[in-house]
Amino acid sequence: MSGSPFVLRWGILGPGWISAHFIKDILKDPKTRDVTDVTHLCVAVASSSSAEKAQQFIDTNAPGVAGIKAFGSYDKLLADKDVDSVYIGVPHSLHYPVAKLALEAGKHVLVEKPMTINAKQAIHLAEIAKANNVYLMEGAWTRFFPTTFAIQKALFEDRVIGDLVTVDAVLGHEFPKDRSHRIYDPELGGGALLDLGVYPINWSLILCYNHPDNKKTAPASVSASALMDKISGVDEQTHVTMMWPRINVISTAKAYITADTSTDCRVRITGTLGEIVVPDVTENPWRYIVRLLGQPEYVVENPIPGHGLFYEADQFARDVRDGKKESEVMPLEESVLVQKITDEVREQIKLKFPASAEEVSG
Hints:
CATH topology of the largest domain: Dihydrodipicolinate Reductase, domain 2
Number of strands: 14
Low-confidence stretches: none
Helix content: 25-40%
Shape: globular
Largest sheet: 8 strands, mixed
Strand content: 15-25%
Number of helices: 10
Distance between the termini: 42 Å
C-alpha cells in the first residue's frame, strides 16, 4: 500500500504486566517486522487507583516518549477524544465491566484473553459493540503470529503431514504457592483454565475448528478433569479432551500452574504422514519442527522482533482503518466458543467464581 501509514491512537486501561509488554511492542518501529501500512501511538494510560500509578507505568515502559497522558480513572481516559482505541489489560473478572464501559464510550476495544469470565458476558460485549458501531476483538495473540499462519497453511493447503489425526497442546507455568497471588484468587478468575488453558484450547480451534473439512463445527463433546487447590478452590491442573467427528480428530488441551512446561514440545500435531511440533512456547510461537516418517526433520523459523503483541495490534489497526467491526482471524463467534468450552469445563470440574464476577449488567 502506497502513501503514509494509518496511525491508530491507543489508550491503555490497566497498567499491569501484560500492558507493559503491549506498550513496548506497539512503540517499536513497525519496519522491524516488515510492516509499513500501519503504525501505533500510545496517547494515554489510565489506572483505576491514581494518575501517579499511570505516570509511573509510562516512565518505566515508555521512557522518553512525549505526549502520553496519565489518568487516575478509566472514565477520564475514555472521555479523551485523542484516543481511538483502548487496550484492556486488567484481571480476568474485570474484562467484562471495563470493556463494556469502553464500548459504550464509543471506543474500539482490544481486550486481553480470555474475553470475559463466561460466554454470557462475551455475547453481551459483542451485542454492545454492534449497537455502538465499534470494533471489538479478544487479544488471543497466538492467532496472529506468522508461525501460526504457516502451520495452518502447511496443514490445510500443503497437507505436509497428510490427514490430521490428533492435536495435543499444553501450557504450564510455576506460580508462587501464595494464596494472595491473583492466580489463586477466585474473584479475579484465577486458576489454570482461564489464565493458561485458553491457549491450548485455542490451538484446538486454530487447527480443528478452522480445518476446512470441519466446516466451522463446534466440538461434538468436551470432557474435562482437574486437580483443585483445596484452600482457594481454583484449578491447579486441568485436562480437556475435545471430539471433532467431522474430521475424525481428538484434541487435548492441558494447563497447570504448579510447574513450567518442558520446552521440547508444547504443541504436537499428528498426521498420517508424520507430525508438526511447536517447541519453546505455546502462546507466542516463533518456530516449528516437521518430522515426516522416514525423512530427516526440518525446522521452519519466524523470529519475533519483540514480545509479539504487535501482530494482533497491526491487524486490529488494519481492520479499524478498513471499517471492519470484528476480526476475520479471531472473530467474535470464536471468542464466544472458547468461553462456551471453558464454561462447560468449569461445570465439569466444579470451578466456581463469585456471582459478582459472573454477572451481566445493562
